[in-house]
Design brief:
This is ABC transporter ATPase component CcmA. Keywords: ATP-binding, Cytochrome c-type biogenesis, Membrane, Nucleotide-binding, Translocase, Transport. Pfam families: ABC_tran. The protein is an alpha/beta fold. The chain has a single domain, classed as 3-Layer(aba) Sandwich (Rossmann fold). It is built from 6 helices and 9 strands. The strands form 2 sheets. A 5-stranded parallel beta sheet has the order 6-7-8-3-9, with helices on both faces. A 4-stranded antiparallel beta sheet has the order 2-1-4-5, with helices on one face. A hairpin with a 2-residue loop joins strand 4 and strand 5. The longest helix has 16 residues. It starts with 16 loop residues before the first strand and ends with a strand. The structure holds adenosine-5'-triphosphate. Adenosine-5'-triphosphate binds next to helix 1. The site of adenosine-5'-triphosphate has 10 residues, from helix 1.
């Protein structure tokens, strides 16, 4: 290296997720976007916007339930292909995706059979952690709204996902449930996981100032 030449620094690693000029169209009208953002591994970001600004649409698109209409998405630097990250991206949406006739224990067993589990975790342990001890074998349709949300959180905790997409995760939860969501999020991020969270309530997150992704209707 010539004297005085600047030291070469290693290129920054690619973001876990990057959106460039991303839009979703309905009847040729953009629901949101064009939107540019990055999300790193071990980072939480808040998706903000008024009612109808497209927060749920964005999360459903990232969960593979809708197609990218315009712009581009990258996963670890490569063009986004659902088949490359299907097991790594977990959505907790308004519809919780639980089978009402099955118990929490059975719902989690089905999910674990399909996707595996995080090492060191088991079904009864996560149900206990989310406060469903004693309700493990009750059909989900007989649980309260908050208990159903807790069962969905138990599934999120159990499965080996990298990116959590949480749409209004605090809805229907009591104070202890809200604290539970924050605890699970902090632990996920500390372990190198990432999360995109929509919430109209205050998210209390102690892992630093989260990135904010603002949608405009
Ligand atoms: N299935 C659908 N068919 C047609 N339009 C839809 C559908 N779902 C949502 N929309 C429209 O897309 C826009 C964005 O909706 P979306 O649910 O993504 O907003 P949001 O930001 O999550 O809203 P909120 O804060 O009320 O939950 C709204 O104008 C809505 O009416």
């Amino acid at each position: 290296m010539a004297p005085g030449a600047p030291a070469m620094s290693a290129p920054a690693p690619p973001a876990l997720l990057e959106a460039r000029a991303l839009s979703f169209l309905r009847a040729d009208e953009p629901v949101f976007g064009p939107l540019d953002f990055r999300l790193e591994e071990g980072e939480l970001a808040l998706v903000e916007g008024d009612n109808g600004s497209g927060k749920t649409t964005l999360l459903r698109l990232l969960a593979g339930l809708l197609h990218v209409d315009a712009g581009a998405l990258y996963w670890r630097g490569a063009p986004w292909r659902r088949e490359d990250n299907a097991g790594e991206v977990l959505l907790l949406g308004h519809q919780l995706g639980l089978k009402g006739d099955l118990s929490p224990r059975e719902n989690l067993a089905v999910a674990a059979g399909l996707h595996g589990t995080r090492s060191g975790l088991d079904i009864d342990g996560v149900l206990d952690e989310v406060g469903l001890a004693g309700y493990e074998d009750e059909p989900v349709r007989r649980l309260s709204a908050g208990q159903k949300k807790r069962a969905a959180l138990a599934r999120l905790l159990l499965l080996p996902g990298t990116l959590w997409l949480l749409d209004e995760p605090y809805a229907n939860l009591d104070r202890a449930g809200i604290a539970l969501v924050n605890r699970l999020l902090e632990r996920h991020v500390e372990a190198g996981g990432s999360a995109l969270v929509t919430s109209h309530g205050a998210v209390s997150f102690h892992g630093g100032q989260p990135r904010r992704i603002r949608l405009h209707a």
